[in-house]
Amino acid sequence: MGLEQFNLQGKTAWITGGTKGLGLQMAGALAGAGAAIAVNSRTAADAQSTARALAERFGVPTYGAAADVTLEREVATFARQASSALGPIDILINNAGINIRKPTVDQTLDDWHAVVETNLTGPFLCTREVLPAMTQRRWGRVIHVASMIGLVGLASRPSYSATKAALINLARTQALEVAASGVTVNALCPGPFATEMNKPLLEDPKKYAEFVSRIPLGRWGELPEIEGAIVFLASAASSFMTGTTLVLDGGWTAQ
Ligand SMILES: NC(=O)c1ccc[n+]([C@@H]2O[C@H](COP(=O)([O-])OP(=O)(O)OC[C@H]3O[C@@H](n4cnc5c(N)ncnc54)[C@H](OP(=O)(O)O)[C@@H]3O)[C@@H](O)[C@H]2O)c1
Fold first, then answer.
1. Are 76 and 133 within 8 A, CB to CB?
2. 202 is a domain residue
3. What range defines the domain where residue 105 resides?
């Protein structure tokens, strides 16, 4: 098949939280491979301007609108409108996520609920919305953006680490549910990348250096380093891979 297997022309990809950070980088990578792109976030102006910018830069059809992944009705409306604008969703990247860094004893119930709803309920709702059309068409890719912190613990991230570990097992179970149709479901586990989510670490030289000291490759990830992995997982290239996890963490979890 050669490099053609990475070509996404004719496919439609939905990247939740695709307006910033890793989501925006992955949206650009998939657009660069030829996919039509749908992006949502809670901020309408960001979703619309991201869609416009991706269309201009990559010459692919795009759709952007506000939708909060924690709200069942907004997820359903977005999926319906994106599909009618671009065609059925072939690729879903469950990327929208938040982190609240506080030890268990300091996490309020509201903190806990916010993280669980965004990081776990959101991917459940979005996946439930797209799977029927994927299985019917006998092609589909669902990628849950988990984290290296879904594979190992890290103090002060109780809700985050629990939801990311849950996403890894959600991928396994959903993969089994749809395997007979050829649809695949996998988890992607990034390590530290410099995005808005990590501002508290990036702006604190001590915390930043502490992270670097724990990464065998000796540095944070560069945003473009997510691109090969997401195009692989979203494309025909990964057709024999399902219910498993791809880790890009500079070696953090090898220790
Ligand atoms: N950065 C890292 O080092 C790293 C490492 C491992 C895993 N990850 C995971 O990668 C994903 C992206 O992280 P990031 O660092 O790129 O984060 P980010 O820069 O903070 O971007 C998060 C995106 O999600 C959107 N979002 C948040 N809550 C949402 C909701 N309820 N509904 C819809 N959209 C929502 C945000 O837009 P609005 O705020 O406008 O809604 C934004 O577009 C997350 O799942 C994160 O856990 C990141």
1. no
2. no
3. 2-193+226-247
Would you say 195 and 20 are in contact if contact means Cβ atoms under 8 Å apart?
Answer: yes
How far is ligand 1, taken at its centre, from the CA of residue 237, in Å?
Answer: 26
Task: Evaluate whether residue 255 is within a structural domain.
Answer: no
Q: How far apart are CA 163 and CA 117, in angstroms?
A: 9
Residue 208 lies in a domain: no
Q: Is residue 218 part of a domain?
A: no
| Tokens read off for 85 | 């604008």
How far is 240 from 172, CA to CA, in rounded Å? Answer: 14
Rg (CA), the chain: 17
CATH number at residue 101: 3.40.50.720
| 97 CA distance to ligand 1 middle (Å) | 4
pLDDT recorded at residue 1: 77
pLDDT tens figures, 160-187: 999 999 999 999 999 999 999 999 999 9
Q: In the structure, which protein residues have their CB atom closer than 6 angstroms to any atom of ligand 1?
A: 16-17, 19-23, 40-43, 46, 68-70, 95-98, 118, 122, 145, 147, 190, 192-193, 195-198
Short-list 207, 227, 169, CA closest to 23? 227
Question: Tell me: the pLDDT tens digits for 18-54?
Answer: 999 999 999 999 999 999 999 999 999 999 999 999 9
The model's pTM is 0.99
Contact 118/42 with Cβ under 8 angstroms?
A: no
Instruction: Say how many domains are in the chain.
Output: 1
Per DSSP, what are the bridge partners of residue 144? Answer: 94, 187
Quick one: which atom of ligand 1 is closest to the CA of 25?
Answer: 16
